[in-house]
Amino acid sequence: MYLSQHDLLTGAITLAIILLALFSIEITVKKKLLSKLIGRKLLHITAICSCAYAIHSFENKTVLAYIFLSFFFVLLAIINKGWMQVNAYKTYGIALFPLAFSVLLFIPVFPNNTIVFAALILGICDAAAGLAGEYFGKQKITFLFENKSWAGFIAFYLSALLLSFCWYSFNLSASKILFCALLALLPAITELFSYKGSDNFTVPVFAAIWMLLLKNLMPGEHLVLLLCIVVFIALCFFAVYKKWLTVSGATAALWMALLLLVTGGLKAFIAPGIFLLSGSLLSKLNKNDKEKNGRNAIQVFCNGIVGISCLIIFAVSHQQVYLLAALVSFCISMSDSVSSELGTYLKGTTVDMLSFKKLPPGISGGISWQGSLSGLIGAAILAAAVCLAYQFSLTVFLWLTVSGFTGMLTDSILGSTVQKKYTSATGAIIEDYETNAVKTKGFNWCNNDMVNILSNILITALFLLLYR
């Protein structure tokens, strides 16, 4: 692969700036001229903005993508060796941003200026959020696995808004101001859902996706989108009030709603809307259920991220099979949720999916004829609703129903085989550890949420392979 003198010079300048920043910041931190936090954030801004310069200036984008990918593996090895530790716990964030840039450069649908903008969003706005969260975010909320603050969110959004204005050289009409206000929103929400530096990947990737999708809308549609967002924020407050969702769950639902609106319009809300409403209502049947205070962000993402991903591909490719795959994903979630809630409530005889040993109702891997029938009906109801809305054929209805029901059964199989379970001190089979409980089955990394997303991915992927 050919590298021009211009590309070699660009790469050398980029690397030199990063190394100079690394050594100078290291020295100033050691001499206590800068705090470790500010030093880290300055290095973050310098390194990532230098990468944005390289993305903007490089002529051979394919080679640059491979260079970023190589740096990802190098940094990954360095982190695993423990040579670069920026926190008390191991974080892979420093390796994830070159991976994000590599992925975006490899996908031809993303224009170069969109990738540059996404990189700047990560470099500048993520640092602003971290500083504001540290100094002003006294009240923290666990949105996914890490504590975040609304102060950090506001700092991210305002800096992203300012960056958007600068991007358009402050030559702004009313429609452009609205566009910039929308453009800053999804990346700011995305940053809240971080785990060990994962936002170094998710923020630039979804910032690029969001910018691409917003540009595909007509200017008049941006105002409609804003009005829909206002309505949906009100619905999120209502869902938290009714304890259908936790604060983190409502924020995750808002994140998904933004993508639903720009990928499929209001019709895209039919499937997840029915699932959310039915699941929230049915969960109240079981008073001792751990979701009695509402679904959290992890549960929302596990049930919706596969469908959202398929809708994004559909919006970009315009291939209907990905729309159907998204609907399959929501049918799987619907079937599993209805089966679990009604199966537990009806208290029928529950047996292990594979061994047929008797299990307490509600334990993953267990099935009953009441729960299975409920799951089949749930999938059929959702399939019928979307087929009426999209005017799909009876064949599509059967595909959606069978796929949803198969996903529910797959969830039970995985729950029986790989999900971790414990035997309590009293001899009862339980899913969550308690004092003196002994693990008797499954892998430590595999809980009910992991089983939900794995079964969803497997059956949705199988549908994409089989459907013609």
What would you say this structure looks like, in words?
The chain has 468 residues and is mainly alpha-helical. Helix content is 70%, strand content 4%. It contains 17 helices and eight strands. The protein has helices at 5-30, 36-57, 61-80, 93-106, 112-136, 150-167, 174-183, 185-192, 199-215, 219-241, 247-264, 270-283, 297-317, 320-346, 369-390, 394-417, 448-466; strands at 141-142, 147-148, 350-352, 358-359, 366-367, 421-423, 429-430, 438-441. A three-stranded antiparallel β-sheet has the order 4-3-5. A hairpin with a 5-residue loop joins strand 3 and strand 4. The longest helix has 27 residues, at 320-346. It is globular, with a radius of gyration of 24 Å. It starts with a helix and ends with a helix. The mean pLDDT is 88.
Please supply descriptive tags for the structure shown above:
globular, 70% helix, 8 strands, 17 helices, 468 residues, three-stranded antiparallel beta sheet, mainly alpha
